[in-house]
């Protein structure tokens, strides 16, 4: 008996608009989606009175057609239309939205503007870095259709445990733009791929990329007063297209292949065992305040997408002119759709949220105890395995380090850790007790979540580099064109005796030691350490602590430093490897100080005398012993930090007969004896005491007490 199958019925056009066959489109997904025979376009605007699709052909300046979307193609606030006969590879598009222009009510519709689709996967029109753009050009940018044929070759997100993570914050362009980088395509995703072997050798496990979404690097009107050159929006914290990789970061961007080039970067990093976290900026957009350009959100539905005062002005909790209305239900859905896209289509391993406290503000700017967006991100099924990192403050004064609504999912940039370590190393009084709390994962802030909720850092892209932290007492931002008024004044830095460049050997030696001190404390603290690209080789910004505007040697990674400062590089590499070798430094739970079934308490505090810490306000010495028994193996690490200008004789904790203290690092020792390859640490001759030098950090490890061929140290 034969079965007669029903005849297949495909979608077919029902109308012709501007000589194009069309039909009512599918409302979801938003954006432009290739379908059999054409492309489906779907865009949201709750307050527009009409919507027009503007079609372009790649390479042609003027539109090839403008198609008013019929009212019968709208359902609710969504306009959707399928257009047949379009080639996704050559089609570009935008929208005109008509509606009221009543700023006092929040409406700023302007049908003379061709608007970007918020869901556009590709933006075209600014694919070469540093070329000035004319914001009055009606057709400056167009939306494109992303190719969907990338071969991932079985790649998956790595899902590395948080406690095993070492984050490396990097700027895509700055990492390889310098002439010394030696890559074929400097300043691009492809260029970064060529430097993956360097990252592997360094030992980092996660690269946190500063913004890679489309932004306009030319929207800074200031000039460098020293050189007269135009300054840039170099960092990229001013998003134009949230779904679109920045074309000028791709060597193939001029060919519209930036999507594939970024996907390849992720794939190659994963092959090397390195995760990828994206720095995302959902707190504001490039449209700025009332004087800024209308590019997308403002022209589509200003009152929905931005936080507005009762008289229609922009709340400015971001410090950049506008604030995204994150907890409006439509905007919340947009943010979720965006992150799902990057997690699913680009295989990224996590996100760092810039000025994340804004994500927890109500539509009128109030701080919410249970913000819907943050809760949705924490519980989203697609994002379940993604690392979520909050910069837990904003420019409106909402500081939530330790109190960000985390829903047991978010970790935080720990600004308290940064400030305490800086102050201790500078020699400030009264911070030793707080440092003790920070190096064990800040249990006062993250007791419920554990040490992995604390992303520890001493430096970040925003502020001094590690080299400059020990070389300048004051910021030197004169070249930013703002009269040195920009940038933070509270740097907790110390120049070690001379401001800026010097040839004084004592000052230079102290600066080198202080850099090692900071790096060693960071990498032996419980939590998730973050290093800024270049700190491992002493990169300088010449005292500039707000280099957001410099696309030049101030911001670029000078690869000549890899050889010049190979001693600092080797020290950092050893410290990262040491952390990886010792589970006592990589805990998911805070230590309690209690004795279990092992040799020692899981954490103990010491001073000049073993088991006797000194917590007085004038003390500048601290020593901590981390201990765990992992799979039957004892792991014991002793860390002492002396911020005083005098040495101190340390009484060491006594070990059982089968163990002995071995020296991993002493930052006062000359290279190459300042650190050792993990596993090759020499046994101390004197097992009872150690003289710690002024302004130095010491790390010992308990190893076999038997004689070895590793040699012995003092």
TrEMBL record:
N-terminal signal peptide: none
Enzyme Commission numbers on file: 3.2.1.196
Residue ranges occupied by any Glycosyl hydrolase family 13 catalytic domain in the UniProt entry: 169-579
Region (Disordered): 475-498
Basic and acidic residues bias locations: 475-489
Alphabetical list of SMART domains matching this protein: Aamy
GO molecular function, one term: limit dextrin alpha-1,6-maltotetraose-hydrolase activity
InterPro entries: GH (IPR017853), GH13_cat_dom (IPR006047), GlgX_Isoamylase_N_E_set (IPR044505), Glyco_hydro_13_N (IPR004193), Glyco_hydro_b (IPR013780), Glycogen_debranch_GlgX (IPR011837), Ig-like_fold (IPR013783), Ig_E-set (IPR014756)
Database matches in Pfam families: Alpha-amylase (PF00128), CBM_48 (PF02922), ISOA1-3_C (PF21156)
This protein's record includes keyword Zinc: no
Keywords, comma-separated and alphabetical: Glycosidase, Hydrolase, Transit peptide
Entry similarity comment: Belongs to the glycosyl hydrolase 13 family.
Name of the protein described by the UniProt record: Glycogen debranching protein GlgX
Organism of this sequence: Saccharothrix lopnurensis
The organism's taxonomic lineage, starting at the top: Bacteria, Bacillati, Actinomycetota, Actinomycetes, Pseudonocardiales
């Amino acid at each position: 008996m034969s079965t007669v199958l029903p005849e297949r019925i495909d979608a077919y056009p029902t109308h012709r608009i501007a000589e194009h066959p069309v039909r009512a489109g599918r409302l979801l997904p938003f954006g432009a989606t290739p379908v059999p025979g054409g492309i489906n376009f779907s865009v949201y605007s709750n307050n527009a009175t009409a919507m027009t699709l503007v079609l372009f052909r790649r390479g042609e300046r003027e539109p090839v057609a403008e198609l008013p979307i019929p009212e019968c193609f709208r359902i609710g606030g969504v306009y959707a239309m399928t257009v047949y006969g379009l080639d996704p590879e050559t089609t570009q598009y935008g929208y005109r939205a008509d509606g009221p222009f009543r700023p006092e009510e929040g409406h700023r519709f302007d049908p003379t503007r061709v608007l970007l689709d918020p869901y556009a996967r590709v933006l075209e029109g600014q694919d070469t870095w540093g070329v000035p753009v004319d914001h009055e050009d009606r057709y400056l940018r167009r939306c494109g259709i992303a190719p969907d044929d990338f071969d991932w070759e079985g790649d998956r997100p790595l899902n590395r445990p948080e406690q095993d993570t070492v984050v490396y914050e990097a700027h895509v362009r700055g990492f390889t733009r310098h002439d010394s980088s030696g890559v074929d395509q400097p300043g691009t995703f492809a260029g970064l791929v060529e430097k993956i072997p360097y990252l592997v050798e360094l030992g980092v496990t996660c690269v946190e990329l500063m913004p890679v979404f489309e932004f306009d690097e030319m929207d800074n009107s200031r000039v460098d007063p020293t050189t007269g050159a135009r300054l840039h929006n170099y960092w990229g914290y001013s998003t134009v297209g949230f779904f679109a990789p920045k074309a000028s970061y791709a060597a193939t961007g001029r060919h519209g292949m930036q999507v594939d080039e970024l996907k390849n970067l992720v794939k190659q990093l994963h092959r090397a065992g390195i995760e990828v976290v994206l720095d995302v900026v959902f707190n504001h957009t490039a449209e700025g305040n009332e004087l800024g350009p209308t590019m997308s959100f403002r022209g589509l539905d200003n009152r929905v997408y931005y936080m507005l005062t009762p008289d229609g002005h922009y709340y400015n909790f971001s410090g950049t002119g506008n604030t995204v209305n994150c907890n409006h239900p439509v905007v919340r859905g947009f943010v979720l759709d965006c992150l799902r896209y990057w997690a699913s289509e680009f295989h990224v391993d996590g996100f760092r949220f810039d000025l994340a406290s804004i994500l927890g503000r109500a539509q009128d700017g109030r701080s919410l105890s249970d913000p819907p967006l943050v809760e949705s991100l924490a519980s989203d099924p697609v994002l379940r395995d993604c690392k979520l990192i909050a910069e837990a403050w904003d420019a409106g004064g909402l500081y939530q380090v330790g109190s960000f609504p985390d829903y047991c999912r978010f970790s935080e940039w720990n600004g308290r850790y940064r400030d305490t370590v800086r102050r201790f190393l500078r020699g400030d009084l009264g911070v030793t007790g707080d440092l003790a709390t920070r190096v064990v994962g800040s249990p006062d802030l993250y007791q419920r979540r554990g040490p992995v909720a604390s992303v520890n850092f001493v430096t970040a892209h925003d502020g001094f580099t590690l080299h400059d932290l020990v070389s300048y007492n004051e910021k030197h931002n004169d070249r930013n064109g703002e009269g040195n008024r920009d940038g933070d004044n509270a740097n907790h830095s110390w120049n070690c005796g001379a401001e800026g460049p010097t040839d004084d050997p004592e000052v230079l030696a102290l600066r080198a030691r202080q850099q090692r001190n900071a790096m060693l404390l960071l990498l032996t603290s419980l939590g998730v350490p973050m290093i800024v690209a270049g700190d491992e080789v002493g990169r300088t910004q010449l005292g500039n602590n707000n280099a957001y505007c410099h696309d030049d040697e101030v911001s670029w990674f000078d690869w000549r430093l890899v050889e010049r400062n190979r001693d600092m590089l080797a020290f950092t590499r050893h410290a990262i490897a040491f952390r990886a070798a010792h589970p006592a430094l990589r805990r998911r739970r805070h230590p309690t100080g209690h004795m279990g079934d092992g040799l020692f308490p899981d954490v103990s505090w010491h001073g000049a005398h073993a088991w006797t810490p000194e917590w007085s306000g004038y003390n500048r010495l601290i020593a901590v012993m981390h201990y765990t028994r992992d799979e039957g193996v004892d792991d014991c690490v002793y860390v002492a930090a002396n911020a005083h200008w005098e040495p101190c004789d340390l009484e060491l904790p006594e070990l059982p007969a089968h163990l002995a203290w071995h020296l991993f690092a002493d930052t006062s020792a000359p290279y190459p004896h300042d650190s050792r390859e993990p596993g090759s640490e020499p046994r101390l001759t004197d097992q009872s005491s150690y003289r710690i030098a002024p302004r130095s950090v010491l790390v010992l490890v308990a190893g076999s007490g038997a004689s070895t061929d590793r040699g012995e140290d003092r």
